């Protein structure tokens, strides 16, 4: 069985097997991804992020159907679910919620557990997106965990980041507090049938207008994307067509402005740097003797050494090995 050729030919089972191997850091899967890499670089990666309870999964459901039915785009979905810090398991609830899409041959769904990774993504999300890209999927929707304000990692992976907000989740300006508003290429206020939806949308528009004024005052270049604020209802499908059109319009802007290439380069840098950090850490742990490491940790715990001092000692010992 030639795994790479099966993936290229559109074998969904082969793609699933490849993704499992990649998640498990199996050399067979990593080698296959190396072979497939020249076929990547064309898929439009769209990040869907926002706080828990904003309706991301339902919206991804609707959006995927619009992409395949109306725009005829072969679409893949990566739905990231949190891993329990106690049991190490993951519910993978998105797989249950998106069950109605699983029978569509144009749609491929993969749930991934975070396995302790921070920032709203799983450790292997980037590699999974590459595999789907190589398999010929034109749009890849990446739904983050839903932890809230810390989910900015998606901006490093996606070409287009859609931030979902919803009325009734507390502070209407919650998104502006820790950077999540700044990563948005498109803002969508879900559950637009609720009475406070327009208030939330207007608050977001006001914040964006302030940011636009500051940008102009700083003398930034004219070739700038203006973030749209849409009101949608994933439950009844309202506004999904407009959202899909805005995603396509942003892709066109990326291509025209040159931002597509710059974002792709940033993603390549991020992938290589992450792999480099993991590789160097594994090599370092292999050089440090277990007894010396435990002694250093004991001294840190006993307040004899600070963490930085312990690190310096461990680095010195490992360089001698």
Helix-strand layout with pairing:
Layout: H1 3-8, H2 12-23, H3 27-36, E1 44-49, H4 56-69, E2 75-81, H5 93-97, E3 107-113, H6 125-134, E4 139-143, H7 154-157, E5 160-165, E6 186-189, H8 197-217, E7 229-231, H9 240-257, H10 259-287, H11 290-301, H12 307-320
Helix pairs in contact: 2-3, 2-6, 4-9, 11-12
Describe this structure in words.
The structure is a single chain. The protein is an alpha/beta fold. It has three domains: 1-37, no CATH class; 40-259, 3-Layer(aba) Sandwich (Rossmann fold); 288-320. The chain is 48% helix and 12% strand. A seven-stranded parallel β-sheet has the order 3-2-4-1-5-6-7, with helices on both faces. The longest helix is centred in the C-terminal third of the chain and has 29 residues, at 259-287. 39% of the residues are buried.
Number of domains: 3
What portion of the residues fall into strands of 2 or more residues?
5-15%
Give average pLDDT, whole number. 85
Approximate shape: globular
How would a textbook summarize the main sheet? 7 strands, parallel
Order of helical and strand elements = HHHEHEHEHEHEEHEHHHH
Determine the structural class based on helices, strands and strand pairing.
Answer: alpha/beta
What is the name of the CATH topology of the largest domain? Answer: Rossmann fold
Query: How many distinct beta strands?
Result: 7
CATH superfamily of the largest domain: P-loop containing nucleotide triphosphate hydrolases
Number of helices: 12
List keywords for this structure.
321 residues, Rossmann fold, alpha/beta, seven-stranded parallel β-sheet, 12% strand, globular, 3 domains
């Amino acid at each position: 069985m030639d795994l790479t050729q099966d993936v290229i030919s559109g074998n969904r089972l082969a793609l699933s097997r490849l993704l499992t191997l990649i998640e498990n850091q199996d050399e067979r899967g990593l080698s296959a991804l190396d072979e497939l890499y020249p076929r990547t670089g064309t898929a439009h990666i769209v990040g869907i992020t926002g706080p828990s309870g904003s309706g991301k999964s339902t919206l991804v459901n609707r959006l995927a159907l619009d992409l395949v039915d109306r725009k005829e785009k072969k679409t893949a979905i990566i739905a990231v679910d949190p891993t329990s810090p106690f049991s190490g398991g993951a519910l993978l609830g998105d797989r249950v919620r998106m069950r109605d899409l699983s029978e569509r041959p144009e749609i491929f769904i993969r749930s991934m557990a975070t396995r302790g990774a921070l920032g709203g993504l799983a450790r292997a999300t980037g590699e999974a997106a590459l595999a789907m890209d190589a398999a010929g999927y034109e749009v890849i929707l990446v739904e983050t965990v839903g932890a809230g304000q810390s989910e900015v990692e998606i901006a490093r992976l996606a070409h287009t980041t859609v931030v979902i907000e919803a009325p009734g989740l507390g502070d209407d300006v919650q998104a502006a507090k820790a950077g999540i508003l700044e990563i948005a290429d498109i803002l969508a206020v879900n559950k637009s049938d609720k009475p406070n939806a327009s208030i939330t949308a207007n608050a977001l528009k006001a914040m964006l207008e302030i940011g636009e004024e500051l940008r102009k005052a700083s003398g930034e270049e004219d070739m700038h994307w203006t973030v749209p604020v849409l009101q949608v209802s994933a439950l009844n499908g309202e506004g999904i067509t407009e959202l899909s059109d805005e995603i396509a319009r942003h892709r066109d802007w990326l291509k025209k402005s040159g931002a597509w290439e710059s974002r792709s380069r940033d993603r390549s840098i991020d992938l290589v740097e992450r792999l480099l950090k993991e590789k160097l850490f594994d090599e370092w742990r292999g050089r440090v003797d277990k007894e010396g490491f435990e002694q250093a940790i004991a001294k840190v715990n006993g307040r004899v050494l600070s963490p930085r001092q312990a690190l310096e000692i461990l680095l010195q010992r490992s360089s001698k090995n």
